Amino acid sequence: MAAAKGLNLRFISKIKVVFNPFQWETASAREFLRILDTQTVRDSNPKCQIHSEISNKKNDPKIEVQFADKEAMVLDTGNMKVVDILSQFNKKYKEKEQTS
Predict the structure, then answer these.
(1) b/e map of 51-80 (b: 16 or more CB within 10 Å)?
(2) Which residue range forms the structural domain that includes residue 92?
């Protein structure tokens, strides 16, 4: 997956992935969490806190990202594919990279 290959956490301070494991809509959020847990991605910012929160509510899964400058991004991933999540994440990351 090309979008995951260049994934970098340099400008990210915290990521939280919230999902109900019994809903089929959570597959993309869980895959994103799996990608975040790879050594290459973790090495890009060892100080970045990555949390998962298991929910028993029937809410759509979501990914909450907090950047180092305290700006936040929330993705409701219920109807998103992992490629779409990575695309949104990388787009926002590139914006941060250009402004720093």
Answers:
(1) eeeeeeeeebbbbebbbbeeeebebebbeb
(2) 12-98
